[in-house]
Amino acid sequence: MENNFFKSIEKKTGVNMNDIFELANSLQNANFKDENTVRGIIKRVSQIANKPVSKELEDKMVQSIVNDGKKLDMNTISKMLNSKK
User: Fold this and answer.
1) What residue ranges do the domains of the chain occupy?
2) How far separated are the first and last CA of the chain, in Å rounded?
3) Alpha-carbon distance 49 to 69, whole Å?
4) What is the dihedral of CA 55, 59, 62, 67, to 10 degrees?
5) In angstroms, rounded to a whole number, what is the distance separating the alpha carbons of residues 38 and 46?
6) Could you count the other beta carbons within 10 Å of the beta carbon of residue 72?
7) Which of 23, 49, 72, 83 is most buried when burial is the number of CB atoms within 10 A of its CB?
8) Three-state secondary structure string covering the chain
9) Going by C-beta distance under 8 Å and a sequence separation of 6 or more, which residues neighbour residue 72?
């Protein structure tokens, strides 16, 4: 039953659920005060979502997370990617 649910999500979104699970696992122990870690996560999400992130947006996202202490979760990343202006 779960497998069909995830297959349905994959079909609708074009996003591989294994990639999402791997990303979620990597977020659990990530150091969000480390700029390189945050940049890596942003790049990975960008790849998974097939949404390119400009250097300017990446810098803003990193600053928001590392320097300003903004919480990093999938919802925050999604909002940042969708407001690419």
Assistant:
1) 2-82
2) 40
3) 24
4) 170
5) 12
6) 21
7) 72
8) CHHHHHHHHHHHHCCCHHHHHHHHHHHHCCCCCCHHHHHHHHHHHHHHHCCCCCHHHHHHHHHHHHHCCCCCCHHHHHHHHHCCC
9) 27, 30, 32, 38, 41, 65
> Which of the pair, 64 or 77, is modelled with greater confidence?
64
Residue whose token pair is 């990530």 = 30
- pLDDT tens string 18-76: 888 888 888 888 888 899 999 998 898 888 888 899 999 999 889 888 887 766 666 76
Confidence label for 78 from pLDDT (cuts 50, 70 and 90): low
Type of residue numbered 7: K
